[in-house]
Amino acid sequence: MFESAELGHQIDRDTYREEEAKLRQALLAAQFELKQRGDFPVIIVLAGMPAAGKGEVANLLLEWLDPRHITTLAFDAPSDEEADRPPFWRFWRALPAKGSLGVLFGAWYADPLWHWDHDSEAAVSRRVERIVRLEKMLTDDGALVLKFWLHLSRDRLKKRLKALQDDALTAWRVSKEDKQFLKDYDAHAAHAETLLTRTSLADSPWRIVEGWDANYRALSVGRQLLDAIEHHLARDSVKQRRVEAGPLLPSVDGVRLLDTLQLDSDLGKVEYRERLERLQGRLNGLTREPGFAKLAVVAVFEGMDAAGKGGAIRRITAALDARRYRVVPIAAPTDEERAQPYLWRFWRHVPRRGHLTVFDRSWYGRVLVERIEGFASQAEWMRAYGEINDFEAQLDDAGVIVVKYWLAISGEEQLTRFQSREATEYKRFKITEEDWRNRDKWDDYVTAASDMVERTSTAMAPWHLIGANNKYHARVRVLEILCDAIETRLKRKEK
Amino acid sequence: MFESAELGHQIDRDTYREEEAKLRQALLAAQFELKQRGDFPVIIVLAGMPAAGKGEVANLLLEWLDPRHITTLAFDAPSDEEADRPPFWRFWRALPAKGSLGVLFGAWYADPLWHWDHDSEAAVSRRVERIVRLEKMLTDDGALVLKFWLHLSRDRLKKRLKALQDDALTAWRVSKEDKQFLKDYDAHAAHAETLLTRTSLADSPWRIVEGWDANYRALSVGRQLLDAIEHHLARDSVKQRRVEAGPLLPSVDGVRLLDTLQLDSDLGKVEYRERLERLQGRLNGLTREPGFAKLAVVAVFEGMDAAGKGGAIRRITAALDARRYRVVPIAAPTDEERAQPYLWRFWRHVPRRGHLTVFDRSWYGRVLVERIEGFASQAEWMRAYGEINDFEAQLDDAGVIVVKYWLAISGEEQLTRFQSREATEYKRFKITEEDWRNRDKWDDYVTAASDMVERTSTAMAPWHLIGANNKYHARVRVLEILCDAIETRLKRKEK
User: Fold this and answer.
1) At the N or C end, where does chain A have fewer CB atoms within 10 A?
2) Are the Cβ atoms of B323 and A74 closer than 8 angstroms?
3) Contact A425/B29, CB-based, under 8 Å?
């Protein structure tokens, strides 16, 4: 894999000067068009051997391009805010917005590249899988992902380190780790080759560049970047190039999961009050267990309009310390959110350890309202199932308990609630024209929700379908399920 | 000050039930209107004696209101991302957006209230001044700031702590600090009284509420909140109620600061190259000094269009490690930024220690383009001078070096540059209709910039006015000034 990058490529100064001038001009023009279009980001991953020129290449790109629309980010030890969340949270917050470029040093490869020696084979596989999924999501979303590997052969690395060390001005750049790396060169190179092979994807292949000669290195990266951007810009439209997936199969017998639920319950007010109080006490106690400080909770509420999501959420939050939780209502995305991949606006609300976030509607909007209203293309919502499962798996891995509720009511019950809302002064704001329009699409929602449950109810984050015609019953069940989920996890941790 | 809050106020259960029902309904309606209007945030500060019911009050508010548009935040020990920035950075990032409510526990008072014993009188004064400025900025900007002090007399605090401790279910709530607090009650109460007096402002007074009886406490806070929101909503418009300030005095002799600058220089290319390289080396070295890890740099570029800001910025960044700096171009605010006070979008880019942020245009837009185009009212841009000085003082206090450049060119030089941009293929995107329109307002810009320099050139963050008809000269001066500023600060630290 690295053979061609050990040949000792070189470019002389005059050629370089001439080529660089043309390249800069073309890159600036391409960057300008990228900014104007604003429909995809360019994500540049810079990885490679020590002292192979990653920093120099980044500096050069920032010199060539308009530095206002390009950001660079290195990933040193995570900050405590980062360490308290799933490992990829820091990458999500570092993604460049559509229309701009981001240079990420090492990015999601830094860790698996150089800190692999304690990893089991299964752990490596999981890391690779996670990376592949992230990049696939990005490129499916239209991002241009360019991954450069700056290479140095063992001999050249040795020479480079020696040269740096011999010069008083540059000796500081050679660290203990670099020297150790040189000793273990062969093992590192073999590991890197494996990792690069496994993460070279059709839409985000690795690009190997020899890092020895500064001119060669600069022109190689620069030209590949230019070609890639121009090529990406030449596509008619990011949307169009997506492969359209086939539709979901209609159920053969016409029976859908959501049609089979028991919606009613005869739980009365007196028993409800008693059970509610007991459950709230239990929930409060659980969040005060010492073990909870290492966990977090994400609770997701979905369901038809007027299914009682707000009321159920208030029964949860009433049991919690206000300093520990946040309720995130999902409405139309802000423009900063629209400039990012779909899941970005949910990633930003992932709670720190010891905290709870309740989503009033959620990322499932992608496969519900966005699917039904056509806000997302079929390809977009079809791939969302997999992206969502991956997102939730990352939360689960990091100790975030994911609890998902579908509150199910009948059409008649909804009608009654709508009418009662319209009749009550201070509830009137809860009912809009849109609610009535959504009601006309009841059947589409049942189909979409059934598909959703089918495809995203996983062992670590199952859907809880709750009959909610009786509000008391729904609220009690919501609390019971949440308590059980936390308790189970606390016990698992203890072992 | 606390006399009335030591009377033992109580409200019986029946009265409470009746009042609560009415209050909730009215609060919900007010919250709904607040959300609809979306032109100001409600910032609720909850402070007070230990065990006086702050958490309970917050929980109640979240139960009464629509929890989707209210957030709560406690300020424990700062995260490392926060500790690396000026102390108020964490409060800026916690501000609720316009149209929503934020409950801040302790907020900017937590620290000065309970950790005051090591502070000198001067330090206390500085803290008070900073708080007063922040709240003034918020209320001037239209925010409704409500500060509640939940009070307990010494005896009642003692009783409450004992009751909590005697119950196995609540004993955990009494900490060692609470017991110590009780011992030092009188000193703490006296200090709190002083602080509350000094920070009770016309637009953000403290509201003292006795914290003994839960019913009394709840209704007191709830009603005051309702009254305040309704009163604030009843104002015709947030904009209108601002006092209009008088205009800046025209200079009597017609001589403006910016008219007096020496714009030209005869620095030639050869000398430029040599000096540039030396300065870039010097800058690079300075940012690698061990002491720099405790500092940060904010560099601000202002000047007429085509004054050479971009070129000067590139000469700085070319000398830096790409991992250390960010260039932030200031264009139209995003909608998340528009929902916050003016300076919020600059606070969010304040660099961590050891990092540099270069602003290509900046917060000074408020007193330049926004003043001239009328995007900000006169009252808004008039108060911006003071707000900006305070912002920069906070940066300076936290070890952030603020370097501000005004690149000055003549009208003829600008014309030449505009024409050359239009003639050069890859520079054509740098010139727009708007640039030509701004050029017609040249004189207004000179006046505004002269006022700006007059009012915001401070000892810790002076303006550097640089004649920039000769680009070489401007770039060299920019680097020299930056190097000098860092060097001076590094030396100061050493002492």
Assistant:
1) C
2) yes
3) yes
Residue type, A455: R
Q: How confident is the model over B147-185, as pLDDT tens digits?
A: 999 999 999 999 999 999 998 877 877 888 899 999 999
Q: How far does A336 lie from chain B, in Å, by closest CA? A: 7
Nearest Cα to Cα of residue B297 among B353, B243, B381, B227: B353
CB contact under 8 A, A425 and B74: no
The CA-CA-CA angle for residues A272, A277, A281, to 5°, reads 145
CA angle B21, B25, B28 (to 5 degrees): 140
Helices (H), A251-408: 269-287, 309-317, 335-338, 344-347, 369-373, 378-397
**Computed from CA positions of residues B390, B391, B392, B396, in that sequence, does the dihedral angle turn out positive or negative?**
positive
**E strand or H helix that includes residue A231:** helix A214-234
Residue (of B478, B308, B315, B330) closest to B409 by Cα position: B308
Task: Give the alpha-carbon dihedral of A145, A149, A150, A153, to 10 degrees.
Answer: -170
> For residues A400 and A392, what is the distance between their CA atoms, to the nearest angstrom?
9
In the block, tokens 């009948």 appear at: A410
Judge if pTM exceeds 0.90: no
Question: Contact A67/B327, CB-based, under 8 Å?
Answer: yes
Of chain A residues 286-315, which have a CB less than 8 A from chain B?
288, 310, 313-314
Distance, first Cα to last Cα, chain B: 44
Cβ contacts of A122 within 8 Å, gap of 6 or more: none
Mutate to test the interface with A, among B59, B85, B105, B340 (most CBs of A within 10 A): B59
The span from the CA of A258 to the CA of A448, in Å, is 10
Take residue A159 and report the two structure tokens written for it.
């020479």
CB contact under 8 A, B62 and A425: no
Q: Are A83 and A45 in contact (CB under 8 A)?
A: no
In the structure encoding, which two tokens stand for residue B381, read together? Answer: 């841009």
Q: Is B425 within 8 Å of chain A by CB?
A: yes
pLDDT averages per 10-residue partition of chain A, 495 residues: 82 93 93 93 96 92 88 87 91 93 93 78 84 92 95 94 87 86 92 88 89 94 95 72 48 72 92 95 94 96 95 91 89 89 94 95 95 89 89 93 97 93 73 86 91 88 95 97 97 74
Which ipTM was obtained for this model? Answer: 0.72
Q: Is the CB of A79 less than 8 angstroms away from the CB of B79? A: yes
Structure-token match 């004992």, residue found: B162
- Other beta carbons within 10 Å of A405: 24
Residue B233, burial from CB neighbour count under 10 angstroms (0-12, 13-18, 19+) = middle
| Crossing angle between the packed helical segments A13-37 and A214-234, to the nearest 10 degrees | 30
- Per-residue tokens: B99: 């149209």
Structure tokens at A163: 């040269």
